[in-house]
Structures are given as structure tokens and as C-alpha cells.
Amino acid sequence: MAESVNTVHSLPIREAVAVLKRGGLVAFPTETVYGLGADASNPAAVARIYKVKGRPVNHPVIVHIGDAGRLECWAREVPNDARKLAARFWPGPLTLVLKRALGVGDYLTGGEDTIGLRMPNHPVALELLRQFGGGIAAPSANKFGRISPTTAEHVSDDLGDEVDLILDGGPCEIGIESTIIDLSRDRPVLLRPGRISVEEIAATLSVKPEPRDRSAPRAPGRACWNPITRRESRYGSSRATNGSGARGRTARYCVSARDRSAIRAQCGSGPPRIRSAMRETCIPICARWTYRAVMKFW
After folding, report:
1. Which of 62, 80, 94, 116 has a Cα at 20 to 30 A from 139?
2. How many angstroms separate the CA atoms of 244 and 246, rounded?
3. Can you give the pLDDT at residue 297?
4. What mean pLDDT is reported for the chain?
């Protein structure tokens, strides 16, 4: 199994930096979900992310940065709206899609002329970025299409030895992926809902983001986004049917009232069982059934 280090006690950030600089993969915590990180300037390292996840090569990845001042390193145009949102919500669960800089390759953008950038709000992630000094490409640390991990144990169970180092920063605080806003055109467009609401963005920009349209750039993680991420219950796990008679391990999905609107916006009507469960604070659902629902219905 991959080495997992409890960063709450030992903070082995230097070891993680060394792994990244030699082209390795480091799973690390953010406030949203755990990310599978690689040196964003190293095409071979980023290619390992795609291989380990089984991720299609035309799906962009988000580049995490440690300071809003590094936006110009990755984007050739940084509009005022981007600076306003970064000042208001960074570090935090907001990804900005901007026109990519000349040196940013297709291996990060999936062939798009845009790049997704985010500054995470987690002490381990921020210290890792500070010591590393560059951008870290990091989609969620799970196999493509599976439930996004919110603990180091989830990462280890899913990826095992395919990741070189796992930084264990405890459970993620939010547990759903970041909001994604496209600012690469003449108007803000919501590419993926998340913890930061449309209303909060509208209040900052004095204009409401428009819905995604056909000409919008492909969003990182958008095609198979699962907004109900795995979060272990303090009451432990149980056994339950998955809707088809099969039985499997059940995790408890904790969804706050604030996050339910983001989930509804992404899921639409969704499968009936999940629709009715949205009214509850905690949603017990079989993980295998949830995965099947994502692939079939969403």
C-alpha cells in the first residue's frame, strides 16, 4: 500500500515536495475532497494522474496555486472579475477558468484554450504549495467515475500503491467539489455548482453568472461529477440493500442545507431514492448503488 502519513502530527511536507519534484504522485487534503497531485509543469507526471485514475485525456485538470499573485503564471488574461472573486473567496472552494498562458500545455487543459485555477483552504495543502513553489495539478484522488474521497483511508482503499504518498489531514471539511466559474469570455458562466453559491458570486460581481451553454469550455471534473461524496459516519457503517436486491457497505452521506441546493442544481431530478433523501440532513445510501446511479442517470 502507499505510504500514508498523519500530517496533523508530523507534517512531512518536505517529503511530499521531494516526491512531486521527482515526478511522483501525492494525495493531499483540501477543504473539499482529497486531491491526487502532480507537478503541473511536468507532462509525464500529469500523465500518471490520468493513467492512475483512468481519466480520459480530454478532461482538464485543476491547477492548485498557493497565492492569487500566481494567476498570471498560468493565465494570459486575468480579468477584474477574477481578481474580485479571488480576493473574496480564496483560499476557498472556488475554481476560476481563465484563458491559459502560452506555456500551459494541452496535457493540463484537455485541448481547451482555458485553464482551471484554485487556491485551496486547507493548512496542509497551502503549506505543500508554499514549499513546492509551483502549481500542483490535482483532480480528486479516486478512480474516474467513483465517489470522491474525503479521508486518507478512502484514497488508500481506492488507489493503493498507485499513489506514492498520502498526506493524512483528517476528514475534509466540506466534502463536495469546488464551484467552477468560467471567466474566459465576456460574461461569467457557472460550469459546476458547489459550496459557493450563485448568489454569493452575483453579490461580488454585481452580475449573476449565466448557465452553462454549448460554447462553454469543458470544465474540470464536470462530465462525471458526483456531488454526494463519501463521508464516514461517526455512527459507523451498516448493511443495506442497494435497490437491486444486492447488499453492500453503507456509508452515511452528510449534506448540509446549504449544500443541498448545489446538489439539486447539478443532479436535476435524479433517481427517485436520492430525490426523496435530499430532504434529510444525513443520507444513508449504498456506495455501489450511488455509483451506478451516477453513471446511469446523471
Report:
1. 80
2. 6
3. 25
4. 80
